[in-house]
Amino acid sequence: MRIAIGQINTTVGDLAGNADLMIRVARQAAQGGARLVIFPELAVVGYPPRDLLEKPSLYEQVLEAEQRLAAETAALDLILIYGTVRPSEASTGKRAVNIAAVLERGRIIFHQTKMLLPTYDVFDEGRYFLAAEKQEVCRLLGMDVALTVCEDAWNDKQFWERRLYARDPVEELVNAGARLLITINASPFHMGKRELRRQIFAATARRHSIPVIYVNQVGGNDQLVFDGSSFAMNAAGEVIASAASFAEDLVFLDPVAGQGELHENFSEPCESVYEGLVLGTRDYIGKCGFRRVLLGMSGGIDSSLVAVLAADAVGPENVTGVAMPGPYSSESSLHDARALALKLGIRFEVAPINGVYETFLAALDPLFGNLPRDVTEENLQARIRGVILMSLSNKWGALVLTTGNKSELA
Hints:
This protein is α/β, with parallel strands linked by helices.
């Protein structure tokens, strides 16, 4: 049973582009001898689709994209599993359901609706989706399969001290005869998340004595970064196949033989955070339709780090750093900013704000009266710099990258 993990980077709302990507990877999987290729949760629409799900026209576009996917892969000796949405058939409740679809020879032969809908942290699925009330074992390539969507496989009662849900879909499907778990996911990255996933599914594999195939999305969508890091385990909870982190990948495996390709590139925690920031920055820029970026460079740590991230994300030739010295700026700050720009190979411009600052003060002084100077005058510099950066953005067609840290955003 040769299976391929299609770890892809989808774009929310780009249904045609997502379908193209799935078609290309499906053909590669078939050429590699796979009989089954598995894509992530909501691969057709991208995750998280949020209020796009409230638009009736979305479901027409989903149908068109899936019809094309079916037509383009019908001649392949290949089954596709992928995540998508459907309008709810219920007369009450939410308008949409989140499903895992099984496509073979141009037609859907099975689908499973997501049962457990997370509404914590970055997730708000209960706002949009209607949960499944029942599930069935899927017969694939001569094997009974538990096909689940993300959260449905994360509720093992023997792993968590306090579970969020009463039902355990995996346990129910195993009790119904499933001998393989396939779970499609859109699981965002945070420090320790990759290790946590493996701990959870190793425990699941051992508890139920079944192999596990875990397929995750990769890429950045809005503020979320998905690391991919897909994997497969044998019934002993040992990794037999793994995909790269923070990159698209196609991995082949055989869960029956207990063999597969190992592409994992786990890095140290700090390095993995950096890789996630680069990926999230690159995808946010590209998926918003930009190619070039600019940022204010003060010579300090925050703007220096953003400059390095930007150069790695889109290439130094697409990055412009702008120093905007004012009355409170030191010469060493300007020197440090220029030196970093030279080292990175990015464009560097200087736009002093002294004159603009004095003009603002002259306009405000009659209103300030005799009040003593304080942080108001210092903060005025930041606002002036924001105006300059946004003006350059409008004129150059480059996206502004902010350089505030979390303490400043709080």
